[in-house]
Amino acid sequence: MSINFELLDLRAFLAVYQFRSFHEAADHLNLSQSALSRRVQSLEAKLHVALLERSTRRVLPTAAGRAFEPMARRLLEELDTSLVSIGGIGPQQSGQITIASLPSAMVHFLPRIIRKFRAKFPLIRLRILDRLVAEGFECVTRGEAEFGINVSNPTETDLIFQHLLDDPYVFVCHHNHPLARRRRIAWGDLCGHPLISVGRAAGSGNRAIFDGVLDKANLRLNWLYEVYSFATALRLIEAGLGGAVMPRLGIPQGRDSNITTKLIGPTELTRSVGIIERREGRLSPPARHLRDMLIADCRGTSTPEPSRSP
Questions:
Q1: Beta-bridge partners for 196
Q2: Where in the sequence is the domain holding 57, given as residue range(s)?
């Protein structure tokens, strides 16, 4: 059975899905609201399912709409990939890349790479899904993102991992903290001090990485706070409310504040950060070049020039 719908039907649905508003989606696509609504209704009729729940106050995706969204986005991205591959990639090439990145990568090296990429390809849009570890894996696995920047996970057999850098864990505290004057601390030194757990319930993976170390040492630490993001943890630390064990990438560089970081020893605990891709996937030429730029920058090598049409 074939289902005949137009590309603009898909773009209409995705715009409403993104903005949760027919008015904003119509402005984004430069359509009238009535034309946009007809596009979505046409798509729903051809699929024989409701994709959106409409009310006078808000628009929300149905279960079918949530399931269809990554498929629709992948269809459009694969079309863009095919069109781009016909003529190679050059400074006048347009299109969109979607990647999923750890928030900590956005703090450090990713903006630098994006600036270089945009200097070469100013017309290519970049959609960045800032996601914690588990959510980032899901985005790439489901095809919502072409590739991701994430930590290594040997259990993810459907994904390929390319190492970029090792990210050590450090203890972050206020400069008036009792441990702040030490050059290096041991895990046992954290006992009795109020600690901030970052992202345990949100799938960050950070606690899972070093919980094994604590179990082996038979240590019970005082996790007094639980927060979602590094930014929130840093605010609590700056207020002198506790310390946190965080990957070094989670701490902004050149930060003018009253916090300090301490290595945890004698054996440093690190996480491996790199590129994740679908094992059976195929990157678009722009995404492939951005990935290669990331790898070259982190490894200190030069990036090959993209192929261009004659």
A1: 225, 244
A2: 1-61
d(CA 68, CA 137): 19
Residue 211: its pLDDT value, please? 67
> CB of 159 within 8 A of CB of 277?
yes
Asked whether 70 and 144 are in contact (CB, 8 A), the reply is yes
Share of the chain above pLDDT 70, in %: 84
Q: Is residue 303 part of a domain?
A: no
Gap between the terminal Cα atoms of the chain: 40
- Sequence-distant (6+) residues with CB within 8 A of 300 are none
User: What CATH number corresponds to the domain at position 259?
Assistant: 3.40.190.290
Pair 97, 124: CB distance under 8 Å: yes
For residue range 237-263, list pLDDT tens digits in order. 999 999 999 888 888 766 557 899 998
DSSP state of 2: -
Q: What is the pLDDT of residues 178-197, one digit of tens each?
A: 999 988 899 889 999 999 98
